[in-house]
Prior knowledge:
Chain A is mainly alpha-helical. Chain A contains 14 helices and two strands, in the order αααββααααααααααα. The first copy, chain A, has a two-stranded antiparallel ribbon. The interface between A and B is large, with 46 and 46 residues.
Amino acid sequence: xxxxxxxxxxxxxxxxxxxxxxxxxxxxxxxxxxxxxxxxxxxxxxxxxxxxxxxxxxxxxxxxxxxxxxxxxxxxxxxxxxxxxxxxxxxxxxxxxxxxxxxxxxxxxxxxxxxxxxxxxxxxxxxxxxxxxxxxxxxxxxxxxxxxxxxxxxxxxxxxxxxxxxxxxxxxxxxxxxxxxxxxxxxxxxxxxxxxxxxxxxxxxxxxxxxxxxxxxxxxxxxxxxxxxxxxxxxxxxxxxxxxxxxxxxxxxxxxxxxxx
Amino acid sequence: xxxxxxxxxxxxxxxxxxxxxxxxxxxxxxxxxxxxxxxxxxxxxxxxxxxxxxxxxxxxxxxxxxxxxxxxxxxxxxxxxxxxxxxxxxxxxxxxxxxxxxxxxxxxxxxxxxxxxxxxxxxxxxxxxxxxxxxxxxxxxxxxxxxxxxxxxxxxxxxxxxxxxxxxxxxxxxxxxxxxxxxxxxxxxxxxxxxxxxxxxxxxxxxxxxxxxxxxxxxxxxxxxxxxxxxxxxxxxxxxxxxxxxxxxxxxxxxxxxxxx
Lengths: 261, 261
């Protein structure tokens, strides 16, 4: 569990969670258990997706993948334990937040993982591998479920424990959806343009496995334009908030758009 | 998810959860989401334990195991989705229970799965496989973590959503711990004395894989005596409750002790 959770990574989900909480008047302390939970869930999905029976990857966050280091059995179990710890951690460690908001944040996290979230994305991703007929609709479904839903849960979970109104939650949900898709478009672009060393994971893999990606379906130029459009949309969702307080979330959208790994 | 969850099974955990809730004055309706969650978690642990990289089993609840039916990738993901759905289901569907009790039940469930629960038991189980020096202490550790903790979470979770006092929770925890160990002692006995058809899973497997079991370490006679002692202990924990209201939990202890599969 530590091998994969503490291997570094950009911590985008925790950052989004805390920033959303603070934007609506909450504190970092209130958001921290949920923020850590989002990273645990993300890490669990990486461990399981890297397994030989799935993407069969050897390198992750610049280190051997979990099953390379500890064997497949331990990797499956480390993922299971991280997933349950995520929920337990939010339930047990969230302080100074009303219990009904904690329950709502847990429900949000649960939805992001299961058959309407990460798992749905990975199932369709596996099923469409090597299928040359995969179009933008399937690609977008996979990205929304594999990436955007957990970014959404991070933002909405943070907003909920921070005391957001329903209206604030919905605006932040819109922001998260744009950012979630943006995240994956940029991932696809980086897979083509960067080395494994720069990425900390196997680069060029999408090309080798003949996977549908934005650069492949739209071309590199149009993919970059789409990324720019998504940054714009994400920021627009935050226009009704105090722009100084919204600076971290605005900055995170830029960070996701212009990151190099 | 449906293949494994709806394959039958004894539903011991849901029954314990509902019976505990009703014993402390709660209703079946209050306990049902938690009861279903316990079965989802149990099913998920069976799916992952049956994987080729773990126990490599072909038969479960009289049907092909999940990976035999759908492949390893889907089996891993079905387990993941069931695990997260369990938490989401408790959070989203529990009605007429205060949110702080829901949060406590979720924390209890989380602890039962992770590195202090099912996963701990399975890790030690795998690590001690084929080790002839495994004694009663390791055997008991494995059984407590692989079985007893989730039975405990079922009973305690049910008691919590049913409005139990702290004292009631602790007595029911004691009952659940005895029943949890009892459950596994009986499983070990049945593995030796019953056929695969009668069990709905591969019988005699413990002998073939040279696994430490109670009959092997204590002999069959002493194993049965130990089971009788555990039933007695379990019932003793319920002595301060109204015996008529405690009848379902008393009966479940007998059911677990004298079941034939």
